[in-house]
UniProtKB/TrEMBL annotation:
Domain of life: Bacteria
Topological type in the membrane: Multi-pass membrane protein
Transmembrane segments: 7-25, 31-52, 64-83, 137-160, 221-239, 267-285, 297-330, 350-367
GO molecular function, one term: branched-chain amino acid transmembrane transporter activity
Name of the protein in its database record: Branched-chain amino acid ABC transporter permease
Keyword line: Cell membrane, Membrane, Transmembrane, Transmembrane helix
InterPro entries: ABC_transp_permease, LivM-like
Length: 410
């Protein structure tokens, strides 16, 4: 019965998350929903990074870089590409299934270049007689996910033949180069000014018989939660399969796994590609939720936050890493509230990170596999000791209780 406690607790936690938006009605509803949506976003990153580092032993600092690839892919796709029933004669365009695929020219960030937007000029010339459609957001998210997987595959093929230390250094450099490139290409990415994205549901959506505006929090909440559950389901299936057995063998002893016939490079590339695709999908959905993306998402502090969430939750258990990310995101936001002690105001916007760092140090020193994973393992291991003792006893005594002897082969 004790083995089922984690499943029961997980089911209750999931039910609470599912019904919370429908039952919570305080004045800070939008703020709390935003915290939880962001928590789900970090949970996807922490869980996928846990699979890569905790299960496969491949330490990467580029997870936020692949997240940004997903976000900027869908952002550029939705920002620059449109469908028109008529050719503009001004933009780069090509016939596409009876319509025209229009690619808008980059205009940078200065207000004087707004008149150079070829599509805007065409719309003014048409006088509202032509209906130009933006590309579907879902298609942009899919492309962002695929682009993140492709980038992960290429980086993996390039560097995963080497040892884990080289992977960490390479992905750190890759993330910094990507940030510098996005910041420098102002005409295309708008640099530090940020690239605007359409809402996750540009035309709103009907849920439970109620219409929700594009800016409402409930549809993105369930979308990000569904993406988190889908990622956890895929990671769980992989962990229980032969694939999971092989990647854990890589973590324990790569040379021994290779000696037993495991294609180490192939499995390292596969797990790297899958986890990068999950990070890219999370970035694409989050980008449409916040409706603006900047190179600041690639700061090393953001990557450090994901690593810390996974470590505190439990680096060798992706479910624990996801739960830890959600809890820590909520706690970090709650700690923003300053208070007064002895007439001195304590600014928690700064000190909250100090407390977070202390928690990380304590976890690394005294709790090797995080704070949540050992709790799950405690209940999962019910009866394991007794079963092991019984198996050992069966090798000593025979079926009748007498000594057991193993006959030598002829």
């Amino acid at each position: 019965m004790r083995k089922q406690i984690p499943n029961i607790a997980g089911g209750i936690f999931l039910i609470i998350l599912l019904i919370f938006p429908l039952t919570y009605g305080a004045a800070d509803y939008d703020y709390i929903m935003h915290i939880l949506i962001t928590g789900f976003f970090y949970a996807i990153l922490a869980a996928s990074w846990s699979m890569l580092s905790g299960y496969a032993g491949q330490f990467s600092f580029g997870h936020m870089g692949f997240m940004a690839i997903g976000a900027y892919t869908t952002g550029l796709f939705c920002h620059y590409i449109y469908l028109s029933p008529e050719p503009t004669e001004l933009c780069a365009e090509t016939p596409f299934f009876g319509q025209w695929l229009v690619v808008v020219n980059p205009i940078g960030v200065t207000s004087t270049t707004l008149t150079q937007d070829c599509l805007r000029q065409a719309l003014e010339a048409w006088g509202g007689t032509v209906d130009v459609q933006p590309m579907p957001v879902l298609l942009g998210i899919i492309l962002g996910t695929l682009m993140g997987a492709l980038a992960g595959f290429l980086v993996g093929m390039l560097v995963l033949r080497l040892r884990a230390a080289y992977l960490a250094l390479f992905t750190l450099g890759f993330s910094e180069i990507l940030k510098a490139t996005i910041s420098a290409e102002i005409d295309i990415t708008r640099g530090q000014a940020g690239l605007e994205l359409p809402p996750l549901y540009p035309n709103g959506v009907n849920l439970f018989g109620t219409y929700f505006e594009p800016t409402d929090k409930l549809p993105p909440y369930y979308t990000m939660l569904a993406l988190l559950l889908a990622c956890l389901a895929v990671l769980g299936w992989l962990a229980r399969s032969k694939f999971g057995l092989f990647v854990r063998a890589l973590r324990e002893d790569q040379d021994a796994a290779a000696a037993l016939g495991v294609n180490t490079t192939r499995y390292k590339v596969l797990v790297f590609t899958i986890t990068c695709a999950m990070a890219a999908a999370a970035g694409a959905v989050q980008g449409h939720y916040v409706q603006i993306i900047t190179p600041n998402m690639l700061f090393l502090l953001q990557m450090s936050l994901v690593v810390a969430m996974a470590v505190i939750g439990g680096i060798e258990n992706f479910v624990a890493a996801a739960i830890g990310a959600i809890i820590l995101q909520v706690v970090l936001e709650l700690l923003r509230n300053s208070f007064v002690i002895g007439g001195i105001e304590v600014d928690m916007t700064i000190w909250r990170l100090v407390f977070f760092g202390l928690l990380l140090m304590i976890t690394l020193r005294f709790f090797r596999n995080g704070l949540i994973a050992p709790i799950i393992a405690y209940f999962r291991r019910e009866g394991v000791a007794e079963e092991t003792v019984a198996k050992r006893a069966s090798t000593v005594t025979g079926p009748g209780g007498g000594p057991h002897r193993t006959e030598a082969p002829d």
